[in-house]
Write the structure tokens for this entry.
Amino acid sequence: MNNLKGQRVISPDGKGEVLETIGDKVVVKLDSGEVRTYPSNDIEDDSNAG
């Protein structure tokens, strides 16, 4: 899960955008405005993002 910055993803708490990756952690800004960090294996690509 490299080079995800700016990519739309689906996290356990909903859809959002990757702010950065730190080791095996992914920092996501959720569509709700919250920023959360997840293990990379909890993140899915949002292939339907427009």
User: Anything to note?
Assistant: The chain has a mean pLDDT of 91.
